[in-house]
Design a protein that fits this description.
By secondary structure, the protein is an alpha/beta fold. The chain contains 8 helices and 10 strands. It has helices spanning about 25-35, 55-65, 95-105, 125-130, 140-150, 165-175, 180-195, 210-220, and strands spanning about 45-50, 70, 75, 90-95, 110-115, 115-120, 135-140, 155-160, 200-205, 230-234. Residues about 10-40 and about 225-230 have low confidence and may be disordered. The chain binds guanosine-5'-monophosphate. The site of guanosine-5'-monophosphate has 16 residues, from strand 5, strand 6 and helix 5. This is Guanylate kinase. Essential for recycling GMP and indirectly, cGMP. It comes from Streptosporangium canum.
Length: about 230
């Protein structure tokens, strides 16, 4: 891990199944996690997923700007920072050894390898926010979304879809931040993610960042009209 800040195990209240090591593999920890997915005020965990390049980080950036009351989990990754990314803001950037340690000690709620790098959600901060009733959002890949579904069944899984596959390809290439082989890996992963859309509670088509944010905010606040399952253009 580069830098100094790390929201790790010291922030998990003592005396819970989450403190100490091995939390994710413990069945007791699973129960605590499931209960924590709906906070005391009805706020619950929302997961935003979808193929790389679909615009998840733009949506998340807009949420940060317009709805600071929503807490967005900051993931740990072994990927190198892109220009403009700051440790502790977009990600906690870690080396392989640090990531190994976090995964092995159960400090990650979920983690996955994606296009040659590893990404994971720090467990403690998510459980703390949910317990405090703070609307909480994870922006993670399909493999991570499946792990959250297994350990926190009350979580709402949202799939962000591109208007068309061509649009997705265009956005991924237009970013200009990855070499062609990485783009190819991300597109291959994108095809798998697109095929899994049915596993999600609802799909938002990313035709407008503002509209997607609006729907997400309604979901995070647990508004019933926002929870109707199915596919809806945004
Ligand atoms: P990027 O390298 O473009 O920032 O992210 C690549 C992929 O990793 C995206 O699909 C993103 O949603 C996913 N991702 C980011 N953080 C996490 C995480 O903590 N866990 C998992 N499973 N995927 C993540």
């Amino acid at each position: 891990m580069t830098g100094t800040s790390w929201p790790g195990e010291s922030r998990v209240p003592e005396g819970t199944a989450e403190s100490g090591s091995g939390g994710f593999t413990s069945p007791v920890a699973g129960l605590v996690a499931a209960r924590a997915s709906a906070g005391p005020t009805g706020n619950r965990l929302t997961v935003l997923s979808g193929p790389s390049g679909v615009g998840k980080s733009t949506v998340v950036a807009e949420l940060r700007r317009a709805h600071p009351q929503v807490w967005l989990s900051v993931s740990v990754t072994t990927r190198k920072p892109r220009p403009g990314e700051t440790h502790g803001v977009e990600y906690f950037f870690a080396d392989d050894d640090e990531f190994d340690r976090l995964a092995a000690s159960g400090e990650l709620l979920e983690w996955a390898e994606f296009a040659g790098n590893r990404y994971g959600t720090p467990r403690g901060p998510v459980l703390e926010k949910l317990a405090a009733g703070v609307p909480t959002l994870l922006e993670i890949d399909l493999q991570g979304a499946r792990q959250v579904r297994a350990s926190m069944p009350e979580a709402v899984l949202v799939f962000l879809a591109p208007p068309t596959w061509e649009e997705l390809e265009k956005r991924l290439r237009g970013r200009g931040t990855e070499p062609e082989d990485v783009i190819a890996r991300r597109l291959a992963a994108g095809r798998i993610e697109m095929a899994a859309e049915q596993e999600f509670d609802l799909t938002l088509v990313n035709t407008s960042v503002q509209d997607v944010c609006h729907r997400l905010i309604a979901l995070l606040a647990d508004a019933p009209e926002a929870s109707s399952p199915g596919r809806s253009p945004s």
